[in-house]
């Protein structure tokens, strides 16, 4: 049945085609509120785009747990047989909201699980590591990925200047420039929680954990030339494919795995297990399969459900905790702060962000507060109070203490770290053809970069493997 068109105040509209004018040829009247309302709303349609990961594609689905890791965590969403509704948003990092989908870049892999004990967000990437290990460098790093202030162009010189001065970036740079740096679709890539998180169990024991989401669609990648050909035809290739595949009933799936490290092992590993530029080798900490993630429903309204989605590593639930990873610690602050700026004070009350469990808190008032008082009782607007029905803390969900020690100082995060061993292990996995594409992708990305910066970067590649440095130098020379 046709619905009656109204103003936002609910009053019926008789004519949505013709403005109210003085005579057929005359000017419009100030009293045409319906015209003013349309123009005013249009002026407010845009919100700030995400400062990073602005271009994205998302869908809803389900996490099903088939394995049994109950001895490691009390998290209800991770118990055998649990099924949890979820949202995924994939993204590129550097491009703006209108950027082309098939660009070489790291892909975001952000997940929100609507558990019965609150939202649990894993805001990861399609890579298990990151460019930096100290959050102090994040704004500087991102500035090198965004536009130059004078030219308003992206600057390969800035990128390679920064990377060549930051050897900890080698691992991530190698993945980015390898085949996996340009997946054909968001469905044909893995996702990684990347950071080390922790599990805690009913006995109060803590375990360190890494999360992996392995594509069941198989890895598939484009070369730079293939990516450019697609962008020439469509800039929205990921949106078209992800939306179309789910609409066609062909639901993409990922096998969910965890790597578990006993708490005390963290002092014994040859690498710092809380360093985001490192993986935990599979032979030391074998992945344990725990379930399947499936995407099976498209958003009905992209803006409301994908653009307004607010993911944050601070969203954990009982049984899941943080780790000393410096990068994770900074992200625990950064995301909710970004959401309050981008979406507003009450962003968590928006339907896509709203937990699917009872929510009670004592935050009050604020812009656009449409949920009223959340404390459980009219007279309870402070705490502690003597009102039985009001919301109270629950000590049964207290997390075991996180062991931390050390003198406060600005420790040199580049001291005592092997930045070359793990990139070398990756390099050694590549066959000759993959290596050749790695060299040529790097050379292509170095177009216009001054020779001294190129050479400084090649000296880092030399330390990963002499073939790596030589291969890149030869590919750069071939492009000259
Ligand atoms: P393994 O041989 O046990 O694992 C190798 C891993 O490398 C597999 O997970 C594989 O992913 C992945 N891989 C294969 N090709 C690429 C590529 N082009 N880009 C990124 N990853 C790729 O060895 P280790 O566990 O000792 O790790 C060796 C190296 O593999 C690491 O230094 C790291 O660079 C990379 N890696 C390791 C991961 C880990 O958690 N240990 C996770 C991902 C990468 P898949 O299973 O999907 O084929
Ligand atoms: C988005 C900050 C590192 C993955 C964002 C946003 C900010 C941010 C402010 C925009 C949020 C929004 O407006 O909704 C930071 C900081 C980091 C950091 C300060 C380091 C100190 C990382 C790392 C990863 C990551 C290491 C992955 C392992 C993502 C993803 C998104 C995102 C996937 C997009 C989320 C979405 O789809 O909405 N980041 N980030 N970030 N970040 Fe980070």
TrEMBL record:
Residues 1-20, 389-409 are annotated as: Disordered. GO terms for cellular component: cytoplasm. The keyword Heme applies. Its EC number is 1.11.1.6. It is an enzyme of class 1 (oxidoreductase). Signal peptide: none annotated. The active site is at residues 53, 125. Keywords: Heme, Hydrogen peroxide, Iron, Metal-binding, Oxidoreductase, Peroxidase. Residues 6-391 form the Catalase core domain. The keyword Transcription does not apply. It catalyses: 2 H2O2 = O2 + 2 H2O. Its cofactor is heme. CDD domains: catalase_clade_3. GO terms for molecular function: catalase activity; heme binding; metal ion binding. GO terms for biological process: hydrogen peroxide catabolic process; response to hydrogen peroxide. It holds the Pfam family Catalase. Heme binds at residue 335. It comes from the Bacteria. PANTHER family: CATALASE. Decomposes hydrogen peroxide into water and oxygen; serves to protect cells from the toxic effects of hydrogen peroxide. Belongs to the catalase family. This is catalase.
